[in-house]
Amino acid sequence: MDKPKEINIARRLLLSFGILVLIFVLLGLFGFYSIHTVSGLGHKIYSHPLVVSNAALQSNISIMKMNINMKDEQIRQIREEGFPNDDIKPDGDRPEYSSIIFLEPFNWRNQRAFGYDMFSEPTRKEAMVKARDTGLAAVSGQINLLQETSKDVQAGFLIYLPVYRKEEVLYS
After folding, report:
1. pLDDT of amino acid 141
2. Could you tell me if 73 and 154 lie in one domain?
């Protein structure tokens, strides 16, 4: 081969390599732009007013069903566990109670719901009774979460899933 042809082939290879590098750089820049766009969309989704607050999404709650005869004993146990001022809320006598006795994380927002009697509110009670009677998860209607503050209050819903001890007779 003669020298001019070798130089021409080398230029073509170098030009082709340069074009490939440019294409990969552009694809990389496009990828970074796409990630930023997805990140922005994710922020919009999580800041949308219909999204349930993080406090509710991250709560693990246990509820104790009790009749009126068990109420005083339950209050005594809660107070012995280090909550001297806590009570079943709201006040009043009802045939049965379904009080929140465990709530994690136990931060200031979730503490607003601690001791709340879920049977005191018809929408919550309806879903709890359905879950209890069917043994399946039940979704409540629209409610205001107890964790909400007075600013930017959001509507929410609850999902109740009954958990029973193995080999126990269900009496509820």
Report:
1. 92
2. yes
The two tokens of residue 151 are 């600013």
Predicted local distance difference test score (pLDDT) of residue 25: 85
pLDDT at 56: 47
Residue pLDDT, tens place only, 28-54: 777 766 665 555 555 555 554 444 445
Do residue 43 and residue 74 come from a single domain? Answer: no
- Closest C-alpha among 98, 90, 89 to residue 61: 98
Spatial distance between the Cα atoms of 113 and 53, rounded to a whole number of angstroms: 14
Boundaries of domain holding 153: 54-160
Q: Is the pTM of this model over 0.70?
A: no
